[in-house]
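Colleagues,

Please find the record for the two-part complex below.
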Amino acid sequence: MSSSLKFLVVDDFSTMRRIVKNLLQELGYSDITEADDGNTALPLLKGGAFDILITDWNMPGMPGLELLKAVRADERLAKLPVLMLTAEAKREQIIEAAQAGVSGYVIKPFTAITLKEKLDKILASRAAA
Amino acid sequence: MSTTLPDPERYRAQVVALHGAMESGNALAFRHAFDELCAEMDSGLLPELKRITAKAQSALARFSAEARLDALAGLEVPDARKRLTHVVKLTDEAAHRTLDLVELCGPLVDEAARGAAQLLESRDLPQWPSRAEAFLDRTRTDADALRAHLSELLMAQGYQDITGQIIRSVIALVDELERVLGKLVQIAEGIEVTSLVRSLPTPLNWEQGLGPQVAGIANGDAVAGQDDIDALLSQMAAGK
């Protein structure tokens, strides 16, 4: 397992950011940056060499879907793995996220096992690409 | 249209001039007096027109406020009650889960402390090495259990995000209710209200996000859980 991967965790609730950060640390990842919405996340993404983005959907300012679209539209970020971690549960939303190029979709409330599974899957396909 | 009758005295000067011009056959004077009469009539009409317009606007504002209040009272307030009930349930569950885990962790820590104390006291006994080994073995297992409980404690705090999103949506509803009721009070007090009551950008825009699902609230076409999402995504991937 490569523990040097650089994560960006985006959620407007600081409790959720701490939960995700702690889970990632338990999984052996220590390079974790936080942002509270798409507007603060995007400059960070453009400025730093992140390996994976974990984002909420429903956030004031720029929501996660818009952030995902902005990432896919940016030539340098287009291939960045994006894991959506959200309470949004409408079928059309999940379809939209998939069409926008989301790499994984985890519904809240979630379990540590689910998060690990989706991360492993994303990282495996990233390694294969 | 107007129910108020005109005051004849108001037009006396113009009518007398008009009558005089007609009697004397002075077309120019007649035209002049006629224009004056028309101008006087127009000036009387304008305030009336303004009054009617204000009344119509006020009625429209009242209508839109009442229609919005109807929607709020009929659907959104009962929904908000369900949302808050759901919040109570989630916070109750999370608090109990947290307390359960704390109660599970306590004995593990107590046992480690007790075992360590015993071991320290029996340092000179011949069976010390085997006791120490048993203690270390047990402590390692208990530490694993503790770590698992701590992870669960961590996850149990996820309720704050979910309930926070739900409570925010209820706050938005209360804000709107306050505004609509304020408008209705203004209208009832005869204060001219011209702006229509617009609904807040209530989270109906799914691109912005709708917030967590709440049992008992119409949720349209929502997935049942993670398995449902995984199935949908792999179905889409296969269809590509």
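Chain B has a mean pLDDT of 87.

Comments are welcome before we finalize the supplementary table.
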